[in-house]
Each structure stands twice: as structure tokens, then as C-alpha cells.
Design a protein that fits this description.
It is built from 19 helices and 20 strands. By secondary structure, the protein is of the alpha+beta class. Helix 5 packs across helix 8, helix 7 packs antiparallel against helix 8 and helix 14 runs parallel beside helix 15. It comes from Mycoplasmopsis felis.
């Protein structure tokens, strides 16, 4: 019996016989040996994921090739499923159950008030997380934290070279509050104090301590420059991104404390199971016997529907952000993680592209394939900005000379009905209405960012220029991730896993480029509106940009913030004009 027939038979059997209860499932090979044990909140849903294709990188070819049968055990509860899983793993010792050991400890600053003294030190292992009054970390290597420790001890525990004694706990609590303010950047008094001391030690030829204070300033700079003000009041946040490629899972990690990025890591692990099982095991092990005590653990919202099963500790802290700054951080981390996957696996090398090209040609029933043209647009509702991008690829990779950015604002102004569908047509028509038209060949294909409606709009634009090239669509799911490739009739096309990742990556790139140029146009428009304000010139504009960095931040700034930079008179002119624009 072929693997495909076995897969179909197993899938049907699971769909009919496996309950939706929590429990443990066992995959078996042709000899009846248990090769993998997993747990699930919903047994049927989790087991079916193994057969539902590569769309979310869940297909695990090596393990699936040996699976011929299954068994399952219903658990009384989710907690009971944990114990059952461990029991079955010990019993069968399956070859595909890999223990994910994550016992790693990184240093922390720890502060403890006891016996009318303040203790300040760095610890690599914290056995009792509740023992200390304040912790900051984990600390990434090469951040010069040991010099900063010396500075903290010297500044807060000594006075004129002598250790401070005979002070009560109230005194030390006040000192600890000052230290907390340093790490949360509520004010810059300590930074200024360090600058003064660096100069003083340098002037007095004590270069050892001058260098130490310089390193202390560098330590604070490094933390400050990565701070995200929108999450400065959210204490400790741990972000994770996961992506599976073949038999490896790539993980990118970021830790923030009071808005400051304090820890970054990129790793990969061997894993032949599905991504859901990996995330469960990885996070459950990650926080086992470690110093970490986050307020929130955050992963992509695409995993929310997977009904992941965590221990009580993780369940109390896990979040799946779907909007706002937390979602933006997750998206950015996912993008960075995906880039690492691409670099490690060299998606874009010549051999892989040749194989991808052959798979696309065969999957789409094409006699030949010359180039791929992929379209996307980006816009802001109720604003004039509208940008279209067309990226072009051939068998050697990205074709820069044929790729193009279209400013479509003039078309948007004349549209009665404004939507992504109409914008798709104008993006395609604008692109074709150029010298590019004469370079298009019959075996070029066009890919819309969207479904049937977007495909039809590109077909209509092609028709206007007497072209009849084939058009396909890359459809995204509710989480704005590539979900499937469809033809002109809306039928899903099955493609190889590596090919899917390639198409997903070029869709992400064209989307990113469209957003980049939209923001660029928006900033240019903002710039124009600033200089239109009577009495505001380039010098004032430069001052504002040096302080706020972007026009968007200027528009969102409070009156008092603008006043600090340009004075009360100009601040009133700018604030009133920008807020008038916003209300319009």
C-alpha cells in the first residue's frame, strides 16, 4: 500500500473514530512499534494536522513515511494528559520523541534589602525567584554589565569612599526606588551623573574609572536605544517566533523589561514532529528550572486555533496578540526569524530556484515558465496615499530592472468606490502602461496578492493591453499570512513545501515594499504640510526631526513636547495646524 493511500485511510479513520477530548495519541509504524507520542487538548484536531499539508509547514515527510497506524488514550483533563504523555514516552521510548533540554541560565542584576543593608550583585542562577526585591535581566553577553555593577555599588552603597552603614530599611527602599528608575528610564538624572563622573575621573588622570563610567554609559545607551515607549509600563515581556523547515524548527526570542530590549537569541532545534507539539514542549521546558519570570509570554496569534497544551505556569502567562504594538513586535520577530531560515537554507541559491521553477511549472500545468510578476498595493483609509508595487522574478532570482513602484494617488482621488480590488486593477494597468509592456512574454505569469476578485482585476488590465497571460492568486489567512495558491477559478493548487515557502517569501517582500513606499509618500506629504505652515522653515523642521526622528511622531506629539524643541510660539503654530489636519 502506498503512503498516500495509507494517509487517506488514516485520515478518514481519525476523522470517524478519534474524539475531540483531551488525551494522548501514539503513532505506529508497519511493525506496530510506537514511533511518536504526543498530547492534545483536542485529539482529533491535533492528529488531523499531520495530514493537512505544508501550508503552515506542518507536514513532516520523514516521520509520515513510517506512520501506518495509531492509537489514543483519552485523559480526564489537560493536566492528566501531561502525566499520561510522560508515562507513554517512558514506556515506549519512541524514536521521534526528542527531549528539548533548555536548562540555560543567563545573568541578572539582583537587589535585596536585608538587615538594614542593600545587597547588589549579579547572579547566573536564581533558585528562589521570590527571594529578591528587584531583578533586571537576563543580561546579554558583551553588554558591559560587570562595569555597571561596579558603578551601582560605588554610587549607592558608598559615600566618600566609605561603606554606608547604620541606615534603616526606609533609607534603602528609597535607594532601590532610584535604581528602578534607572532601568525604567523615568528620568535621566543618573545618566547625567555618570557623564559628570566620567569627566571628573578623566580630568584627574584616573583613566581606569573614567573608562568604567564610559562603559556604564554605553550599557545604558544600549538598553535605551532599543526601548519601545508603548510597552514601557508592561514590565517583563517574552516574545517567541517559530518556523519549521524540513526537520528543524527555527526560534527567535526577544525579552523586554519596561520597554527595553534586554535579550535576543536565534537558535534552531532538530524536530520531526509537527510545529504545535514542538511549541508545547519547547516552552514547557524553557521555563522549567530557570531564572525567568515574565509577566507575559507572547507568540503569534496563528497558533491560538491550534489549542496548544501548556502547563499551569505557561497557561497563566501565554498571550496571542492580534493587534497593536505587541502584534507589531511579533510580526517583526517573525520576519527576522524567516530571514534567518532563508539564509540558513539558502532558498535563493541557483539549484533551489531551478527546482522551484520546475515545481511551479509542473504544478501550474505550464509548458514553460519565463518570469513571475507579483502585485501588491498599500493604502490608508480616508487618506490620499496609495502605493502599488510589482516585483519580478526569474530563474536567477529578483529582477530589479523590471520591478516597479507605482504612486497611485491620482487614481485614488478620482475613484468613487475605493477598495483593494479596484487598486489592484490600477496597479496592474499603470505597470503595463510603460515600456515594460513590450518585454512581457507569453510564458510570463502574474500573481495577485488576493483571491478571485484581485485575479479578475489583473486579467482585466491585461485584456486592455491585448495580453492573455495566466494569473494566479496568493490568498492570506485571517492572520495576514500566506495560506494557499489558487488558479483563476479559485481552485487551490498543491505545491511543494519549498516552493510554498518561496512564494510566501516573495509575497511578504512585495507587501513589505508596498508598505515602505506608502510610508515614504506619507512622510513626504507630512513634510510638505509642515513647511506650508506660515513661519515654519527648514531649520525648525530639522530641529523637530532631530528630536522626534519621524514626521509621524511629530504629529502624535503633545504640545508640551513640541514646545521643548521649538519654543511656545512655534509649538502653537505647529500643534494647531497638525491637529486641524487630523480633525479634517
Amino acid at each position: 500500500m502506498t503512503n498516500k493511500l495509507i494517509d487517506n485511510k488514516l485520515y478518514t479513520s481519525i476523522n470517524q473514530n478519534v474524539p475531540t477530548s483531551p488525551g494522548v495519541y501514539l503513532w505506529k509504524n508497519s511493525s506496530g512499534e510506537v514511533v511518536y507520542v504526543g498530547k492534545a487538548i483536542n485529539l482529533r484536531k491535533r492528529m488531523k494536522q499531520y495530514f493537512e499539508g505544508h501550508i503552515n509547514s506542518w507536514l513532516t515527510p520523514i516521520m509520515m513515511e513510517v506512520i501506518c497506524d495509531y492509537d489514543f488514550i483519552i485523559a480526564k483533563s489537560e493536566r492528566d494528559a501531561f502525566a499520561l504523555e510522560l508515562n507513554q514516552i517512558k514506556k515506549y521510548n519512541p524514536i521521534y520523541n526528542i527531549k528539548l533540554r533548555e536548562k540555560r541560565n543567563y545573568p541578572y542584576f539582583v537587589f535585596k534589602i536585608q538587615k538594614n543593608e542593600l545587597d547588589i550583585k549579579i547572579l547566573s542562577e536564581i533558585k528562589d525567584k521570590t527571594k529578591y526585591d528587584y531583578k533586571f535581566g537576563p543580561l546579554t553577553p558583551n553588554t558591559q554589565y560587570s562595569d555597571f555593577l561596579d558603578i551601582l555599588i560605588n554610587y549607592f552603597l558608598y559615600s566618600e569612599g566609605l561603606k554606608i552603614i547604620n541606615q534603616d530599611n526606609t533609607y534603602w527602599n528609597n535607594k532601590l526606588d532610584l535604581i528602578k528608575n534607572i532601568f525604567t528610564f523615568k528620568d535621566d538624572w543618573f545618566y547625567k551623573e555618570l557623564q559628570k563622573r566620567e569627566i571628573w575621573f578623566s580630568d584627574n588622570m584616573n583613566f581606569e574609572w573614567a573608562l568604567k563610567y564610559k562603559k556604564g554609559l554605553n550599557f545604558l545607551d544600549k538598553i535605551k536605544e532599543t526601548q519601545i515607549t508603548e510597552i514601557s509600563n508592561m514590565q517583563i515581556l517574552h516574545f517567541f517566533a517559530f518556523e519549521k523547515y524540513n526537520d528543524k524548527v527555527f526560534i527567535s526570542i526577544r525579552f523586554y523589561q519596561n520597554g527595553s530590549l534586554i535579550f535576543v537569541e536565534h537558535i534552531n532545534k532538530e524536530w520531526k514532529g509537527i510545529i504545535s507539539d514542538f511549541i508545547e514542549q519547547y516552552l514547557n521546558n524553557f521555563y522549567l528550572n530557570t531564572n525567568y519570570s515574565p509577566n507575559k509570554i507572547l507568540i503569534d496569534c496563528i497558533y491560538k486555533d491550534n489549542e496548544l497544551m501548556f502547563n499551569d505556569y505557561i497557561n497563566s502567562k501565554i498571550f496571542y496578540p492580534q493587534k497593536g504594538i505587541l502584534k507589531q513586535i511579533i510580526d517583526n520577530l517573525n520576519e527576522q526569524n524567516h530571514s534567518i531560515v532563508m539564509i540558513k537554507n539558502k532558498y535563493m541559491n541557483k539549484n533551489n530556484l531551478n527546482n522551484i521553477w520546475i515545481d511551479i511549472r509542473n504544478s501550474l500545468n505550464l509548458n514553460s515558465l519565463n518570469r513571475i510578476f507579483i502585485f501588491d498595493n498599500s493604502f490608508i483609509n480616508n487618506k490620499k496615499e496609495l502605493c502599488g508595487v510589482v516585483d519580478v522574478y526569474d530563474q536567477t532570482g529578483y529582477v530589479k530592472k523590471m520591478s516597479k513602484v507605482n504612486n497611485l494617488e491620482k487614481y485614488k482621488l478620482n475613484m468613487i468606490k475605493q477598495s483593494d480590488v479596484q487598486f489592484t486593477y490600477y496597479n496592474a494597468a499603470c505597470y503595463l502602461n510603460s515600456n515594460i509592456l513590450y518585454k512581457i512574454k507569453e510564458d510570463d505569469i502574474f500573481i495577485a496578492d488576493g483571491s478571485i476578485q484581485q485575479i479578475k482585476e489583473i486579467k482585466e488590465a491585461l485584456k486592455q493591453f491585448d495580453l492573455n497571460n495566466k494569473v494566479f492568486g496568493l490568498v492570506k489567512n485571517n492572520y495576514h499570512k500566506t495560506d494557499k495558491l489558487i488558479d483563476e477559478n479559485g481552485k487551490q493548487i498543491k505545491i511543494d513545501d519549498i516552493t510554498f515557502k518561496f512564494l510566501s517569501s516573495i509575497q511578504e517582500k512585495v507587501d513589505k515594499r508596498a508598505k515602505f513606499y506608502l510610508n515614504k509618500n506619507k512622510n513626504n506629504n507630512n513634510k510638505s504640510s509642515l513647511l506650508k505652515i506660515k513661519g515654519i522653515g527648514k531649520q525648525t523642521e530639522s530641529k523637530l526631526l532631530n528630536y522626534f526622528k519621524t514626521f509621524e511622531k511629530i504629529k502624535k506629539a503633545k504640545f508640551s513636547e513640541i514646545e521643548l524643541v521649538v519654543g511656545k510660539k512655534f509649538a502653537k503654530l505647529i500643534y494647531d495646524e497638525l491637529n486641524k489636519e487630523e480633525s479634517n
